[in-house]
Design a protein that fits this description.
alpha+beta; 2 strands
Amino acid sequence: SSARRAAIRDVRAAGASRTVEAEAPLRELHAYASALRSLTAGRASAAMEFLRYGDVSAAAQPALLKDIRGF
């Protein structure tokens, strides 16, 4: 787990490259690709695909509803 609430599922090596497969809530990935490129001097890239819907914790629900409703 990390600050972005990610769970790393696999790390593969191919020559000098590494592929990291992880699951993280979409909400946590805002601007992730830009941050990754900045941290790696432009050498890394990111791709995302939908996996599944997940439960929202009771603690996170009020903020999420405020974001959706706008109040």
